[in-house]
Amino acid sequence: MNVYDFDVKTSRGEQKSLEDYRGKVLLIVNTATKCGLAPQFNDLQRLHETYQSEGLAVLGFPCNQFANQEPVKDNEMAQACQLNFGVTFPLLGKIDVNGPEADPLYKYLKQEAPGFLGSGRIKWNFTKFLVDSEGRVIKRFAPATKPMKIEAQIKKLLEKAK
Questions:
Q1: Which of 55, 61, 87, 140 could form a cystine bridge with 81, CB 3.0-4.6 A?
Q2: Which residues contact 149 (CB under 8 A, 6 or more apart)?
Q3: CA 101 to chain centre
Q4: Residue 117 binned pLDDT confidence (cut-offs 50, 70, 90)
Q5: How many CB atoms lie within 10 A of CB 63?
């Protein structure tokens, strides 16, 4: 099993297979526009713009499970991210990342990279998962980890994928 085995919903409510990203390095992030960490959208966008042509795909998964920081509807959220942060990378449908209604993709990500003390729970918005070009979860990064601190590891995976 790997990341490509999952389907997710788009912000328009359509099914999207992650198989569409086969061969790409993925940075998967649970996002929230009203979060104090929302300025990370700028660096996520910079990584997207810089490395998209080399095979990186940044995928944002809005989540409203942390202090009601993503209260808007999917279509409004995507618009807000584009207007406020210039986001052009894919923002998918809003999901739960913890609890019984957690999205199957996130259940898998947490199983593969359980995080600090192995709890498996997502601590907050902007938890990041780096996935190699073969769909394997390589590493989990804490919400406070700035996206540009992951750049060297992304470059290494992109080189390896060539």
A1: 87
A2: 141
A3: 18
A4: low
A5: 26
Supply 73's token pair.
């509807």
What whole-number distance in Å separates Cα of residue 119 and Cα of residue 125?
16
Number of Cβ within a 10 Å radius of residue 74 = 18
Phi and psi, residue 14, nearest 5° = -90, 155
| Pairing state between β 128-131 and 25-31 | antiparallel
Tokens at residue 87, please? 């986001």
Q: CA nearest 96: which of 83, 110, 84?
A: 110
**Residue found under tokens 């992109």:** 158
Whether residue 35 lies in the annotated active site = yes
Alpha helical stretches, state H, the chain: 40-51, 74-85, 104-112, 151-161
Whole-number percent of the chain with pLDDT over 90:
77
DSSP label at residue 89: S
Exactly one of 26, 27, 29, 35 is catalytic; which is it? 35
Q: How far apart are CA 14 and CA 87, in angstroms?
A: 20
Question: Cβ(122)–Cβ(110) under 8 Å?
Answer: yes
Give the pair of three-digit tokens for residue 115: 């995080």
Q: Which domains does the chain have, with CATH numbers?
A: 7-161 (3.40.30.10)
